[in-house]
Amino acid sequence: MKVLLYFEGEKVISKSGIGRAMKHQMAALTSQNIEYTLNPDDDFDILHINTIGPNSSTIIRKARNKGKKVIYHAHSTEEDFRNSFMLSNQIAPLFKKRLVHLYSKADRIITPTPYSKKLIESYGIKLPVHAISNGIDLNKFNYNEDKIKAFREYFQLKEDEKVVICVGLFFVRKGILDFIEVAKRLPEYKFIWFGHVPLYSIPKQIRDIVTKDHPSNVIFPGYVSGPVIEGAYCGGDAFFFPSMEETEGIVVLEALASYQQVILRDIPVYDPWMQDKVNCYMGHNVEEFTKLVDDVVNKRLPDVSEEGRKTAAKRSIEEVGKELRQVYELVLKDENE
């Protein structure tokens, strides 16, 4: 069995969740000794396509002409496209039509969560849909004092300074407005939002917030990788991710793997794998988020980080590899029936 992992525009997506999903897929297949290629000109048995760019239809057509099986990895939905880039809400219905058109060309579909599986099925697509996590490299996010030191030195944090972190693109959907409001109400803490998106591509309101209209206790350092971000995950006092829509949220898995206290918005994507007061804390609005952040930072709530790590462990690279193998075997079996 040989798999073509296809990601269009690798450089463009490298700093996004889909970019991390690419690395995770490569590692997952390696963990199961499944041969793969990133080169469409190589020979392969299964096309595992992950992106919806202009070359998608061509790649699928070429695979079909060679008699190959096609699995579409549905990272995108209409719902998580909304409230992102400029004009995204106006374009969303057309975006959904493209998704349906492309996803329907596959033999089977993979998507990260039971929630996104329900969304894909609600689009009227009649293909088998499998919910498989994007996975997490547990070892990369182990607790590490040196990484914590690198993080605190990078931001010149005082020894007793409390820090709340978030990782995501500058989208309304990601909850950036609520993040800012909570920061305003808790001026005694530093709030750091890691991530980047070209400023010209987002609405002026968000662009202004990122560049100038935010409280002095909020930092937007842009895209940061390596020991600094990994140190932030395990060295911050809370991970506050008020996103309003996700297909999974790789950053949530990264925070869980880091033994971090995680605060989320109570939205359907986390059902059933994230549970309030078990492996995270969940809120619905600025008032609830403010209290949760304050209580977590001051350790007035039970520490749920051990359960969070267990949740991440169930989605390890190795476990994802086993699940991918099962779907690959199913799609090849379909060919022989």
Automatic annotation (TrEMBL):
Residues 43-139 form the Glycosyltransferase subfamily 4-like N-terminal domain. It comes from the Bacteria. Residues 151-303 form the Glycosyl transferase family domain. Coiled coil: none annotated. This is Glycosyltransferase family 4 protein. It comes from Amedibacillus hominis.
